[in-house]
């Protein structure tokens, strides 16, 4: 099998497109960064070139299943949230770009690669703004000595700082009162209230 000049161009373009997307991921300290995304894009391009030369699509279907396996490996659940979905999606789209380059659809690959970088960069900042200013549900669990006045004090603290209470459950355990507060508020409001709760000497335990 001879290496054609067009094949070299495809590999170089895969380095450019994959490297551009990978650089954005690297700047944000993501698990799949510059080298990983570049290699995925280059690999998908090479597999597609080989698939075309051998006149079949079995290799292309293998790329899709293999990349799905890689993407699943970066998704995890931590701090009550599912994390890694964007990284998995980036891996998936990088392979698609590599397949587009390998099949000779250069303009489509370049435009799509640019769109991916815009989504990751611009939408990433928008996502942070939404997280900061949007409403987030949070459950606070705390324990303190039996004291009805303390419940009124905590209720006032939540309301004063814009944390809305949807439900409050209370339980008695020996001489302690266990409280479960289901709330929602802006992230910065949650953080402010959490700091106040941590500094409260009457609270024996606090989880959220």
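^ Assign residues to that structure.
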């Amino acid at each position: 099998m001879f290496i054609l000049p067009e094949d070299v161009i495809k590999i170089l373009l895969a380095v450019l497109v994959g490297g551009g997307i990978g650089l954005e991921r690297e700047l944000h300290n993501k698990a799949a960064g510059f080298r990983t995304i570049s290699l995925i894009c280059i690999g998908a391009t090479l597999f597609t070139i080989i698939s075309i030369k051998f006149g079949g699509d079995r290799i292309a279907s293998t790329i899709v299943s293999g990349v799905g396996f890689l993407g699943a490996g970066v998704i995890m659940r931590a701090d009550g949230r599912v994390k890694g979905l964007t990284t998995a999606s980036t891996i998936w789209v990088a392979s698609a770009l590599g397949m587009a380059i390998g099949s000779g659809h250069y303009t489509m690959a370049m435009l799509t690669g640019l769109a991916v970088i815009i989504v990751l960069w611009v939408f990433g900042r928008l996502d942070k703004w939404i997280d900061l200013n949007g409403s987030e549900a949070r459950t606070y669990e705390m324990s303190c000595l039996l004291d009805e006045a303390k419940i009124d004090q905590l209720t006032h603290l939540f309301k004063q700082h814009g944390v809305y209470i949807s439900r409050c459950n209370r339980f008695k355990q020996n001489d302690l009162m266990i409280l479960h507060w289901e709330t929602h508020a802006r992230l910065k409001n949650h953080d402010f209230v959490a700091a106040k709760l941590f500094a409260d000497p009457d609270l024996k335990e606090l989880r959220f």
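Residues 5-132 form one domain.
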